[in-house]
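Continuing from the previous page...

OK, I double-checked the sequence for Peptide deformylase against my notes and this is the correct one:
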Amino acid sequence: MTVQPIRLFGDPVLRTPADAVVDFDKELRNLVKDLIETMRDEGGAGLAAPQLGVGLRVFSFDVDDVVGHIVNPVLSFPDEEEQDGPEGCLSIPGIYIDTKRRQNVVANGFNEFGDPVQLVGTGLMSRCVQHETDHLDGVLFLDRLDATARKEAMKQIRSAEWYDAAKPPTVKDSPHGRGVFGSGLFSPGR
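Thanks. Re-ran it with the corrected sequence; updated structure tokens here:
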């Protein structure tokens, strides 16, 4: 296990959809260990492989003393209930903006050995699973903000110590629609 550097907002890997994992091998198990170790070292609730520069569909989580990972997650939502609260990202350090998410989520995928797993989350776990799955699609939580909140977030980012004005990042509209309820990956029942 090795703590890895986290890619920051502006790095193209964060905007590139990740590939499905097809080989459940030692390399994947080492990636999972690196994700968990790096996430814990940074004090995060979750960390996706693209944040380490690896374009594979896997993320780790550590919410309410539940630590784990999921490979090739597919999300579904059991209801329409939503939550709105502060959200941050290890790739956008120090920035926290209220972001709407679904209150409840079911993630189906695999563990590091290729065995099927299901993660049922509510509240913070649901937010984490949605946030990390967004990373796997090249989407950042900033993409889910309305214009006013996005403008405020970009103002905070430009004044952040880590921001590099020579490589200004861009914010794009989410391919899943504004907010949580757009079409695509995040539609109920999918």
